[in-house]
Amino acid sequence: MSTVKIAELLREAAARLPGEEARHEAEQLLLHTLGVERAWLFAHATDAVADADRQRFELLLQRRAEGHPLAYLVGRRGFWTLDLEVNVATLIPRPETELLVEQALARLPADDMVRVADMGTGSGAVALSIASERPLATVMATDVLGPTLAVAVKNAQAHGLENVWFRRGHWYTALGADRFDMIVSNPPYIAADDPHLQQGDLRFEPPPALASGADGLDAIREIIGGAHEHLVPGGWLLLEHGWDQGQAIRELLEQASFVEVQTVQDMEQRDRVTLG
Ligand code: GLN
Hints:
This protein is of the alpha/beta class. The protein is 39% helix and 18% strand. The chain has 2 domains: 6-66, Helicase, Ruva Protein, domain 3 (Orthogonal Bundle), CATH 1.10.8.10; 87-275, 3-Layer(aba) Sandwich (Rossmann fold), CATH 3.40.50. The chain is built from 11 helices and 9 strands. Substrate binds at residues 186-189.
C-alpha cells in the first residue's frame, strides 16, 4: 500500500493535465478508477490509495495527457438528459447536437404515434433523446457498423427505452421500404482533407463518423437525395452540419423540392442544423 493520499494524488494529477478542466478531468479519471461517486472522494480525501488503483489511474492519466478524449477513457458521456456509454466505435456526442434534438422535438407532437428515423445513430444520442421525450413515437436508429450499433442498443436498454428499434446498414438501405414522419441525422460532414481531423478529439474518433468526401457533403447529398422515398408527405428532414455548409444544404433541399427550408444556429451563432 502506498502512502499517497487521495487529495495529493488528485493535486499532482491535475498539474499534469493541460487546460482549465484539468482538475475536473483528474477527478473524473479517479472516480472511474475507483468506481466511486464524487461525494465519496471528498469524504475520503486523506485515505491512502492502493497501489493497483494508483497504477490504473496513472495509465489513464498518461493517455489523457497524450490527448485521448476523456469520454473514451471513462467510457461515458452525458447528452440531453441521458448518461450514455461511448467507446472508440462511436462518435462522442457533442452539446451542439442537442440543437438537432430540440429542433426535432419542436416538430414532433407529444400526443401522436409518429415515426422517426435517426440515420447514423452512433452512441444513439439523438435517437434515444427523442425516444425518451416522445414515449408514443417509434424511433428507428440505424448505423452501418455493428460494433457501433451494439453501443446504441446497450444505451437504449440501460435507459429502459422500448420505443427504439435498430437496423444496421448504409443510410437508406437500412430503412428498407419504410416511411417516416421525420428523418434526423448528424452525419459525417467534414471534408476528407480537413486538417482538423488530425487535431484534438477528432484524431481518436471513428473516421467514418466524421469525414465525407472532398467537400464533406457526400453523406448529406445522399440523405437528401433519397429522403422523399422515405418520408411521408409533409414529413421533416433535419440535418446537423458544419458552420459553413448551411447555404449549400439549403440549396440541396430546395433542389429536392423541400419547402419551409431553414437553417438554425447554435449557441455560438453558427449555422448548425438545416431542415425542410
Ligand atoms: N448521431 C450520433 C451523434 O450525434 C453520431 C453522429 C456521427 O457519428 N456522425 O452523436
